[in-house]
Amino acid sequence: MIAVAFQFFLLAVALISLPIYIIFLYVLIKYRKSEDIKSSYFQLCFALGVADCYVLIHSHLAQKAAYWGIWREEFFLKYQEVGFVPGYLAWAMRAMTFAQFNGVLLLATNRFTAICLPFCHAKLWSTKIMAVAIFLQFAIPAVIVLPYFWLVVCRPIDSVSVSISFADRSWHRFYYFFGAIYMAVICFLCVLMYAAMLVQARLWRSKVIDSRQERRKRRMELKLALSAFAIFIPAFAYSCVMYNASTTADYNRLFISWSAASDVFAYTNVYVLLAISPSVRCKFLHTIGLYTGELECDSRRREHISTFECSPKLSVNYSQRLPTLALCDELMSTAV
Fold first, then answer.
1. Contact 231, 107 (CB under 8 A)
2. CA-CA distance, 36 to 220, in Å (whole number)?
3. Domain-by-domain residue ranges, the chain?
4. Does the keyword Nucleotidyltransferase apply (predicted)?
5. Tens digit of pLDDT for each residue in 138-177?
6. Cβ(104)–Cβ(235) below 8 Å
7. Which position among 54, 92, 93, 117 has the lowest Cβ density within 10 Å, counted as fewest Cβ atoms?
């Protein structure tokens, strides 16, 4: 009973979060030339978002539908032999999951170069290199899991559930263990880079910087690094779940834990960026009609004004309605 309620809860969250995610990706496309979100970091977030959305849609229409017996007789049980359909269902899910992890690695690498190698960061993330990196993010997993087309079947577990899994249990253990190792290597590299960023951040803090622009830039870089680290945490948790999957034969327990870990991992990117980036949040709220203020704010206002500026239905000329806030703005502009 608890498992059923939990799955319905995940479905409800998906029905709310998936439209939010799609609008978020639309915002990144629409404002891709805007000064505040045209950096390579947001382009990598968009690529990760594509993988996240595919995983969410695919998992609910394939893996979860099969587990709950939806389209059981009409679709899934027609493919109890190795073939294209069950192979594609498993291949696409696994390839996109690896693409998610590659995206997490790219975000960590991007923040590492921005903080630890700032003088060559722009050169390392040129348009050509970005295109190659995003292509490899999806191409490498697609090739690695290609054998799924010849190894996977749809088979009944009980009177309700159907699993999309390997016909041979030994292949199941091999690929799930391989997947756990693949994810563990990425997590290890990310930990090393975030540790280096932490050391560099402490060095920055110990030095006195006279330029307000430089201080502002460093705060922004650290803020984005914090968002990348927040995305990494559920990725690490997911890798732990998949390692457990390589050693357990309890499909029901595995499915419940995988469902939770997969969904949380997929949602993190959009909600973290909306929470951390005022610029993205303003543009998102403007797109859905909940914000009528100016989208292009100068860097000083973005740095000092609180989330009042992104409050729903706030007037463009907020200083006329909120004289106290306007006074605070003047005081901040003369500070330091």
1. yes
2. 10
3. 2-277, 299-334
4. no
5. 999 999 998 888 888 888 877 777 878 787 777 877 887 8
6. yes
7. 117
